[in-house]
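QA checklist item 7 of 12: single-chain prediction sanity check.
[x] sequence parsed
[x] length recorded as 119
[x] structure emitted
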Amino acid sequence: MPDKRFKIENFTQLPSQSCPCGSAKRAFTSEPEKTATIHLVEISQNSRVHYHKRTTEIYYILEGSGQIELDTELFNVEPGMTVLIKPGCRHRAIGKLKILNIPVPAFDSNDEFFDSDII
């Protein structure tokens, strides 16, 4: 029987994982094509500035208030706003926020870089 061309996941049933900015529930991580994933992220601490070499991220702010730092510029964010973060853009979230993060292609922990990691 061929694989189905769709998949349904329920964030309420996904495990929460620690991440640099708090905790995240990640859906569609097992898809072999690695097209995209979607993460429900609870930002509970100021995250470290980081960037991706291949991944574009789309943030959709669901709850809370805070700021996002993009290539050293700070922007206030609030529910209903979206942010497109292209590869190479240094970024981090600041404040207490709940966001949807859509990485394209799918999240890959090997594509997360910190300037302090460069020697």
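[x] summary fact logged: The longest strand covers residues 56-70.
[ ] second reviewer sign-off
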